[in-house]
Write a structure and sequence with these properties.
The protein is mainly α and 175 residues long. Helices cover 63% and strands 0% of the residues.
Length: 175
């Protein structure tokens, strides 16, 4: 599905390697919690507060540590606007969005950058230019940025993310 103008050769699924990512389903509960939380744009603290659980407890669940009680699972699922069955992924035909997994595994530096005013402003400008919802544009940009090749040493810096966002802006606005 193209997400740029006709002059831009930028296909969303190709840009994020959907074939490779699409084969990976989060099998661990922690991966599912992180993917859903990230998709909803919630912080660990917000999920913990909404679930009535401690931040370290929810953090440990995301990292695959500990054995949650059924009550804790219910609380986390409710905080994530899901049923326990959906959270555990046991529904027949359960369709998991592979982009959510990719975003859940995005570097912390990217997650921090997406909360900046610059990112929000650029998302608004690009959404208007492309005629799509801000949330959809933000998700597409985040997936593209998260799946882009990285330098060999260390996590990308805020400046790296700014440069990448500027490149997307130039591509998507034909400027």
């Amino acid at each position: 599905m193209p997400f740029a103008t006709a002059n831009t050769v930028c296909y969303y699924s190709a840009a994020i390697g959907m074939e490779a990512v699409g084969e990976t389903r989060p099998s661990r509960l922690g991966d599912r919690i992180r993917a859903r939380r990230t998709a909803l744009g919630l912080t660990l603290a917000e999920v913990a507060e909404a679930a009535g659980l401690s931040l370290p407890y929810v953090s440990n669940l995301e990292r695959g540590r500990g054995n949650p009680t059924l009550d804790a699972l219910r609380s986390v699922a409710q905080a994530l606007q899901q049923t326990v069955t959906e959270l555990l992924g046991d529904e027949p035909g359960d369709d998991f969005d592979p982009m959510e997994l990719l975003l859940a595994q995005a570097p912390q530096s990217l997650r921090a950058f997406t909360r900046t005013e610059r990112f929000r402003r650029t998302v608004g400008d690009l959404a208007a230019a492309q005629g799509m919802a801000r949330e959809e544009m933000a998700k597409r940009l985040m997936v593209g940025m998260a799946s882009a090749p990285r330098r060999s040493a260390g996590d990308p810096t805020e400046q790296d993310w700014r440069r990448m966002l500027d490149a997307y802006y130039l591509i998507l606005t034909d400027e």
